[in-house]
């Protein structure tokens, strides 16, 4: 389930004591088993049929508890995702001769990734990405410790990465971490260079990157 036993017990305790999920005496499935079903299915990308065989429940019961648990886990985002003090330089940068002072104002990186999606057949064309697979475009922000600090899901696979980012910034219903003044996220060349978001420097003909610029881009994106 991608976590050790103490963490699993603590997660169940939080869900129960803080009211993220309610229990009923008529329920035949304990909260611990519901959490196990959801985590096991999500972490291994298993179908409801496989989960039903593993936990000896009907597909309907598996579907019901998967939906309820996933909704409860999403509500934990406010306590699970915690940002560092973005006003200070990250210790990993401050203590590195390779990165300091060049990246002292960088608070993290942003990139997009594609996750396979299951949508109605009439929506396949909208969700089909440039590689021909049906997916959703997911925007992810990480800090310098490789921890997720923001995840934006739901966009069609055909949507451009920069469009997803601009929506996250401008949409009042989306809680997005805007970098403080003079701080920035490192982003790759598909995004637009603007305040708070730094793209790799392009100096070659037609805006192409030289070899040294690819090295800078790699440092910005992967921290190598």
UniProtKB/TrEMBL annotation:
Gene Ontology CC: nucleus
Residue span(s) of domain DDE Tnp4: 110-213
Signal is among the record's keywords: no
Location of the DUF8040 domain: 1-74
Subcellular compartments: Nucleus
A single MF term (Gene Ontology): hydrolase activity
Coiled-coil regions listed: none
Keywords recorded for this protein, A-Z: Hydrolase, Metal-binding, Nuclease, Nucleus
Cofactors that this protein relies on: a divalent metal cation
Family: Belongs to the HARBI1 family.
Protein name in UniProt: Protein ALP1-like
Organism encoding this protein: Coffea arabica
Designated gene of the protein: LOC113693330
């Amino acid at each position: 389930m991608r976590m050790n036993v103490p963490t699993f017990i603590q997660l169940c305790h939080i869900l129960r004591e803080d009211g993220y999920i309610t229990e009923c005496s008529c329920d035949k499935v304990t909260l611990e088993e519901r959490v196990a079903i959801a985590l096991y299915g999500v972490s291994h990308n298993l179908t409801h049929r496989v989960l039903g065989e593993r936990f000896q429940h009907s597909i309907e019961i598996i579907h019901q508890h998967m939906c309820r648990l996933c909704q409860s886990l999403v509500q934990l985002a406010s306590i699970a995702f915690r940002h560092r003090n973005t006003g200070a330089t990250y210790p990993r940068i401050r203590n590195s001769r390779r990165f300091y002072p060049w990246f002292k104002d960088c608070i993290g990186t942003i990139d997009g990734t594609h996750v396979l999606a299951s949508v109605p057949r009439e929506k396949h064309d909208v969700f089909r990405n440039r590689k021909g697979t049906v997916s959703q475009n997911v925007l992810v922000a990480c800090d310098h410790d490789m921890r997720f600090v923001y995840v934006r899901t739901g966009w069609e696979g055909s949507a451009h990465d920069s469009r997803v980012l601009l929506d996250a910034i401008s949409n009042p219903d989306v809680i997005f971490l805007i970098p403080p003044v003079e701080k920035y996220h490192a982003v790759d060349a598909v995004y637009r260079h603007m305040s708070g978001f730094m793209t790799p420097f392009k100096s070659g003909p037609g805006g192409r990157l030289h070899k040294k610029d690819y090295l800078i881009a790699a440092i910005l994106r992967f921290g190598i």
